[in-house]
């Protein structure tokens, strides 16, 4: 019988790696959660203050105005040619990543084996690493939410956040299990159909749960906002879920 | 690196002044230690990333309340440890059928993952498999430790914090940390040992059963005409 001494426990501790990879979107998410602009935007803000002070002098103001016109013309051409201005789309994408665990899995892990999707998301592939929406200041601006509405909507999303995160974790594990099974199947003459059925059944259940939770949240948001805000909200949703409209009735809590 | 208190305090002062890039510098310096701690505490990468993010949010929002007479490491890990604890409590209150926690081994707290049912991606030599199994046993044993023991042992082993710094995080004296580390190691050793014994015992039973079945089959073969 093997005996475990303190040194053996220490050795096991030493072998326990954390597989750390720096998170490229971390700073952006933290800033977003803090409701602060990102580093570049902050610099722009402080520059604006500096220019504002400079403009209090008439001579400098005239010089700056001329430079602004020239630089502005150049920049506008540059930006239009490079297709800048996808900020709103990025926010829609982040919102969808935040409220749709299945889509998050597909965007982050490239899981394409989840065939059952009651809500059909729009097709577009993000260029950058996916960043979850950390705050709802964006939605407040888009829908012109009053302070009480904003608080309600934020609390509502907060209620679901944990459930979405849990579900995402389960989806990820299911995806990994499927991949492991698939890899083993390629190297084996025997296919365990029972195991395959269980894996697929789990994926189906999780996909349905994901869609149900998302739909629940969207419906509850619609119950908080006013009709004219609802129209705008549906426009936003339409960009991420074309033709989707929450069906009245599902009211299960997260 | 983190032992440099003057550097840490300068970073915090810059953060309090909201100097440009101060938050980024804090994140750059502390992301790895926080990830390392939260990952081993929760053993879930996604939850870990969430906790790391929230820790930095709190570092920023509570920066004015930081007491410069305490080490920054203690303050930061106190925030992270509380978030880990809250998360664990939340998961306890909202148990879900998870692929991660599917099969209970029946000795209170130590659970086998359904994923373990899925065969490993590549075959490993027997010795490596045994080492991996031992490591899994340790991970499960760590998960079953109470919050203060788990926090103390992880900070001590992986973050190289002094007893005094760990004491600030756990909320006890330096002597209390020593006691907690002793208790934690004892529990870990016992649980890993118990699991190994259980595994070896079931392995022996399996071999006995297979030998008996084989002998019976051979007996039947020799009796048949």
Automatic annotation (TrEMBL), chain A:
Keywords: Membrane, Transmembrane, Transmembrane helix. The keyword Transmembrane helix applies. The keyword Transmembrane applies. The chain crosses the membrane at residues 60-79. This is Uncharacterized protein.
UniProtKB/TrEMBL annotation, chain B:
Residues 136-187 form the RNA polymerase sigma factor 70 region 4 type domain. Pfam families: Sigma70_r2 (PF04542), Sigma70_r4_2 (PF08281). One of its GO terms (molecular function) is sigma factor activity. Coiled coil: none annotated. GO terms for biological process: DNA-templated transcription initiation. It comes from the Bacteria. Residues 27-93 form the RNA polymerase sigma-70 region domain. Keywords: DNA-binding, Sigma factor, Transcription, Transcription regulation. The keyword Transcription applies. Belongs to the sigma-70 factor family. ECF subfamily. PANTHER family: RNA POLYMERASE ECF-TYPE SIGMA FACTO, RNA POLYMERASE SIGMA FACTOR HI_1459-RELATED. This is RNA polymerase sigma factor. It comes from Pelagicoccus mobilis. The lineage of its organism: Bacteria, Pseudomonadati, Verrucomicrobiota, Opitutia, Puniceicoccales.
